Amino acid sequence: MVAPEALVELRELCPAASVKNEAGQVFVDLPGLKIPTGKEIVARDALLTMQPHSGYASRLFLSQAITGRGANWTVHSVLGRTWHTPSWRDVAPGRAIEMLLQHLKVYQ
Q: What per-residue string of b and e applies to 20-45 under the rule 16 or more CB within 10 Å gives b?
């Protein structure tokens, strides 16, 4: 479950953020999330789960990989779409916004 106040914080970065569920897993849908990648900002649809998924404590899935950023990208099917995510384990549990910002560090 994503607390209403957590969704409010996430909407500061992604105004269209909403909660989605699939097979008992809760995701925050972040359409058009702006991701800083060093010299530029790229937009990707994203899904954040703060629950364990595919061997990680949490995951941030992107609609398309970011070339030259992250390593060991894998492909997953979630909510009827194909998503991409790099190997990134350095995300401590906490508030949703803090976890999202930790996930975004891999792209900087």
A: eeeeeeebbbbeebebebeeeeeebb
Domain ranges of the chain: 4-107
What are the per-10-residue average pLDDT scores of the chain (108 residues)? 91 96 94 94 96 90 93 94 92 93 94
**DSSP secondary-structure letter at 101?**
H
Quote the pLDDT of residue 76. Answer: 95
Quote the distance between the C-alpha of residue 49 and its chain's center: 7
User: DSSP string of 2-55?
Assistant: --HHHHHHHHHH-TT-EEEEETTEEEEEEEEEEEE-SS-EEEEEEEEE-S-BTT
Q: What is the pTM (predicted TM-score) of this model?
A: 0.93
Question: Which pairing describes strands 81-85 and 74-78: parallel, antiparallel, or unpaired?
Answer: antiparallel
> What is the identity of the amino acid at 87?
S
CB 102 within 8 A of CB 53: no
